[in-house]
Write a structure and sequence with these properties.
By secondary structure, the protein is α+β, with helices and mostly antiparallel strands. It has 3 helices and 4 strands. It has a 4-stranded antiparallel beta sheet with strand order 1-2-3-4. The protein is globular. The N and C termini lie close together (11 Å).
Length: 102
């Protein structure tokens, strides 16, 4: 199955050293939920939130599609992943690149 379709339908994908999940978040005092991509890093044993902006869709389905689109742009080199922790983005890009090349 295509990785984008798997992520969209199952809500997660496994990469070498990482687990990527789609989730929802809400900001303080904001009742609207916004799409997020969270990444578990096996090397650090920590979860990280991908800080790249994900446009909120008119529906939950559109929001998920927007989140997958952001990850696709990162995979294609159009965007750099923003995690706020040194080294995570570089390792994540390598793992994501391996997935795209399969």
């Amino acid at each position: 199955m295509d990785w984008k379709r798997k992520l969209r339908e199952e809500g997660y994908i496994e990469l070498e050293g990482f687990r990527v999940e789609l989730t929802l978040d809400n900001t303080f005092m904001d009742l609207d939920y916004i799409p997020r991509i969270i990444v578990y890093d096996e090397e650090t044993g920590r979860w990280h939130v991908l800080r790249n902006p994900i446009p909120k869709g008119k529906t939950l389905e559109e929001s998920w599609d927007n989140a997958v689109g952001v990850l696709e742009r990162i995979a294609s080199g159009e965007e750099e992943p923003v995690f706020g922790e040194e080294g995570v983005g570089e390792r994540f890009l390598r793992a994501l690149g391996d997935l795209v090349e399969r």
